[in-house]
Amino acid sequence: MLGVDVEQIEQWDWDGNDLAERYLLLWDRKHLCGEWAGFVFSRGRLVYKRRIWTADALKREPRAW
Fold first, then answer.
1. Which segments within the chain are labelled E, that is strand?
2. How, if at all, do strands 39-42 and 45-48 pair?
3. Quick one: which of 25, 60, 62, 57 has its CA closest to 44?
4. ∠ CA(2), CA(8), CA(10), 5° rounding?
5. 3-state DSSP call for residue 42?
6. Tens of pLDDT along 3-57?
7. What is the layout of strands, in order, in the sheet containing 39-42?
């Protein structure tokens, strides 16, 4: 995900890397796990494969459950 090797990450463990840490925290907030694996948040929308939902669309959409 960051395009670096294990040695670089080990170096960051010693020296730190604020930008990489912020990027990983952002990635972690966007991606869901468990039953929601594969869903992500992008630009205020919920995305799964090629389907995109806005908050308003979710409020209007009939519930499937």
1. 39-42, 45-48, 51-53
2. antiparallel
3. 57
4. 115
5. strand
6. 888 888 888 888 888 888 787 777 777 878 788 888 888 878 888 998 898 888 8
7. 39-42, 45-48, 51-53
Residue 65 pLDDT: 45
Tokens standing for residue 22: 């912020």
Residue closest to 42 by CA, chosen among 27, 25, 24 = 27
Contacts of residue 53, defined as CB under 8 A and 6 or more positions apart, other chains included, come to: 45, 46, 47, 61
Give exposure, 44-62, as e/b (b: 16+ Cβ within 10 Å).
Answer: eebeeeeeeeeeeeeeeee
Among residues 2, 31, 1, the alpha carbon closest in space to that of 17 is found at 2
